[in-house]
Amino acid sequence: MKQKIIARLVAVICEKGYSEMSISSISEATGLKKSSLYHFFPEGKAQIAYEIVQFVDDMLTHSFEQIMHENELPLTKFNKILDVLSDCYQQGQQGCLIDIMTISYIDERTQLAIKDLLLKLIGLFKRIFILKGSTEQAAEEKAIETVMLIQGSLVLSRATKQPVYFMNCIHKLKTGKSTAS
């Protein structure tokens, strides 16, 4: 039950942002009374933010590891990972959790969870670039640039309400028209 609640809360935080997310809006979105919310999340908003990041991390990690274990060419794996990210962010219509929560508003535990998620993503892309024949150093540089392009395009898409920026980024990465691919 708690996982279903957290899945609903992702939409709330993406719509309202961390600073504007209230216990009342959370209660409305989940259909739970405030007392029930405190039962599931005794630490309040800070715990909710942390568990949302963990939920997204677990979901993405599971999807990415499945892709990495497939007997596919590195480019196919790269494109499938980009598809998962595109779906996760609803083709750029849903903002990046990191942007939405804005690091200054969240507690240290959630900041560390976000850092871990980003480092996993960099590590994943690094593995892909090594499989494609890059040296370890070149693969790491390309992986960092890929994550920067994805995250930056999500922030730009949210700020301008133009999801096309994110989709253009994904398209350029898939077609090799980006310096990172």
Structural notes for this entry:
Helix 1 (about 1-15) crosses helix 2, helix 5 (about 75-90) runs antiparallel to helix 9 (about 165-175) and helix 7 crosses helix 8 (about 135-160). This protein is about 75% helix and about 0% strand. The protein has a domain at about 50-175: Orthogonal Bundle (Tetracycline Repressor, domain 2), CATH 1.10.357.10. The protein starts with a helix and ends in a 6-residue tail after the last helix. About 30% of the residues are buried. The protein is mainly α and about 180 residues long. The protein is built from 9 helices and no strands. The longest helix is centred in the last third of the chain and has 25 residues, at about 135-160.
List the helices and strands and how they pair.
Blueprint: H1 2-16, H2 23-30, H3 34-40, H4 45-68, H5 74-88, H6 97-101, H7 108-131, H8 136-160, H9 164-175
Helix pairs in contact: 1-2, 1-4, 4-5, 4-7, 5-7, 5-9, 7-8, 8-9
Which short descriptors sum up this protein?
elongated, Tetracycline Repressor, domain 2, 181 residues, single chain, mainly alpha, 9 helices
